Amino acid sequence: MKPCLQQRPGKQQGSVLLITMVFLLLFAIVATAVFRGSQTSVQAVGNMQWRTEAINASNEVVANILSDYDGFIQPALTHGLNGPGAPTVTAFSSDVNGDGKADISVNVDKVECNYVAPVKWEDLDEEKKEDQQCFGSSANQMGEPPAICSEVQFSVALTATDTVSAANVQIEQGVGVRVNSVTNVCDF
Fold first, then answer.
1. 153 and 111 in contact (C-beta within 8 Å)?
2. Of the residues 45, 155, 180, 185, which has the fewest C-beta atoms closer than 10 A?
3. Domain boundaries, the chain
């Protein structure tokens, strides 16, 4: 009697091996695609982090410039932004990771005065520190002391550059500053 299943020697052509190789190749292609996709995501997240750090450094520079009354605001009110005696605003650096080296260099490209408007009496709040300087000592026709302050709108353009990768971002920010003067700094 003959067995039901009979193997013939030399008749198998390696089809199992071929199918296995095709599946291994497909798995390798999928793994490569996933790896490249994750690398792209890591690069995108790194770029977003650098951009955020550059914007934060730029905002810090704008805050430092406009909070310096003696070094920026008063010279701007007295001499304007472009004439002799105008405030000098140049480059700043920021150490993001705390290693003692400048990571981001921020250059102030331009500072412009957009407009100056006198502050109206009804817009003042005696409780606010910035408004307390605006109350005059004499009374106007309605019995209220006149406001002696102006709202100055500045536009500051900055370029932040990463010192390692040399990537940069340009930022323009408008800022309003209340000053104890009615001088029109935009007319200089």
1. no
2. 45
3. 16-187
